[in-house]
Specification:
Layout lengths: L6 E2 L3 E5 L7 H7 L2 H4 L10 H12 L5 E7 L5 E7 L8 E2 L1 E5 L8 H15 L5 E7 L3 H9 L3 E12 L2 E11 H9 L6
Parallel strand pairs: 5-7
Antiparallel strand pairs: 1-2, 2-3, 3-4, 4-6, 7-9, 8-9
C-alpha cells in the first residue's frame, strides 16, 4: 500500500508509528489538558519522554502503535494503540489520541472500527475490553457507535478531578463481532 498505509478507512488510514512522527505536534497533544483529561497520563511529557516510550513499546510484542493519517491531506492527525495484548487469554484493549483540531470529523469511530476489525480478523484475538471514565460521555458513545457493547460499570474505580469516579466497561467478543459484521457494522 502507498505511504506505508496498513489499515485503510474512508477518511483516514493507519500506518506504523515512526520515530519521525514524534515531534512538536505530538508533544502538544500529550501535554494538552483537554486531550489528556481522561487518559492515564497526569504528568507533563518532554520530547525525550516520548522517544523513550516509543523505544520501549516498539521493541515489545504486547502493543501495536499506529499513526493516524487523514487521507485527504496526508496529515498526521493522531495516534492509535492496540494493547497491551494478552496472547494466552487472547484479549486486548485499544486507545486513540486525536489532535483537538481534528475532533468531531468521524475519525475516532473510524479508527476504532479499523482496530476492531484488525484485532479479530488478523490478530485472531477473542476479546476487547476498554474502560472509560463515566464523565467521558463522548468516548463511551463513540465506542458504542463503533460496535463495542456497554458491559457495565465499576464504581469509584479512578481518581480524577479531585474525586473517585465510576468507569464504564465497553467490550466485544469475537462471537459478537461476527454477528455485528454480518449485519454490516464493520468494514468488509
Amino acid at each position: 500500500m502507498a505511504n506505508g498505509m496498513f489499515l485503510e478507512g474512508e477518511l483516514i488510514y493507519l500506518r506504523a508509528l515512526e520515530r519521525d512522527d514524534i515531534g512538536s505536534e505530538y508533544l502538544s497533544w500529550v501535554n494538552d489538558e483537554l486531550i489528556m483529561k481522561y487518559l492515564d497520563s497526569p504528568f507533563p511529557s518532554t520530547i525525550e519522554d516520548l522517544f523513550s516510550y516509543y523505544d520501549d513499546v516498539k521493541d515489545g510484542n504486547d502493543n501495536i502503535f499506529f499513526a493516524v493519517i487523514e487521507k485527504k491531506t496526508g496529515k498526521h492527525v493522531g495516534n492509535a494503540k492496540i494493547g497491551p495484548i494478552h496472547w494466552i487469554h487472547r484479549r486486548t484493549g485499544f486507545g486513540r489520541i486525536i489532535g483537538k483540531e481534528y475532533w468531531s470529523k468521524g475519525f475516532g469511530q473510524e479508527i476504532s472500527k479499523l482496530l476492531i476489525k484488525y484485532i479479530f480478523d488478523q490478530l485472531n484475538l477473542n476479546r476487547i475490553i476498554e474502560h472509560n471514565i463515566s464523565d467521558n460521555i463522548k468516548a463511551v458513545e463513540s465506542n458504542i457507535k463503533s460496535g463495542l457493547d456497554n458491559e457495565g460499570k465499576i464504581k469509584s474505580y479512578v481518581y480524577a478531578d479531585g474525586e473517585y469516579k465510576d468507569v464504564v466497561i465497553v467490550g466485544l467478543t469475537k462471537e459478537r463481532y461476527i454477528e455485528k459484521k454480518e449485519k454490516g457494522l464493520f468494514f468488509n
